[in-house]
Amino acid sequence: MAGLLQQAYRQKDELGTVLIDEDLLTPTTQKEFAEYAMLQEKGQNKYQTAEWLINELVHDYDTSNLFVTRAIKLAEKEDRPVLAQHLITLLGENNHQIASLQALLGRTPREGLDEEDDD
Fold it and tell me: Using CA atoms, how far apart are residues 9 and 23, in angstroms rounded to an integer?
């Protein structure tokens, strides 16, 4: 799982470039970025187990994918194929990380993420 932080930085930078190329506004301050990213820092998390941290990371990727899939639909609706394709690539990278992290936990890629039908 080495390289997750570098991948996150790369994804953020590449998405920012695509948004600028598409003449779309992007957050310009750390405060705006943190507000829109819905990130929360909790110091007590450093005392959690590795398994707990990996599970939280899996759920963070899954939450991110909710926004990415909505953005794909919006980009397609607004006829922005370059942005849509970039977001589809981002979704694929996130899905790969989910599958890799879930494997570390001995789970299938979607185990514990999809709501089970009560039927």
Answer: 21
Q: Is 77 exposed, middle or buried (0-12, 13-18, 19+ CB in 10 A)?
A: exposed
Rounded to whole angstroms, what are the CA distances from 32 to 39, 42, 62? 11, 19, 22
Q: Which residues contact 63 (CB under 8 A, 6 or more apart)?
A: 38
d(CA 51, CA 58): 11
pTM for this entry = 0.83
102: which DSSP letter? H
Query: d(Cα 78, Cα 98) in Å, to the nearest integer?
Result: 29
**Cα–Cα distance list, 38 to 57, 67, 81 (Å):** 14, 11, 26
- The Cα–Cα gap between 19 and 30 comes to 17
Q: What is the pLDDT of residues 5-50, one digit of tens each?
A: 999 999 989 998 999 999 998 767 777 666 766 666 778 888 999 9
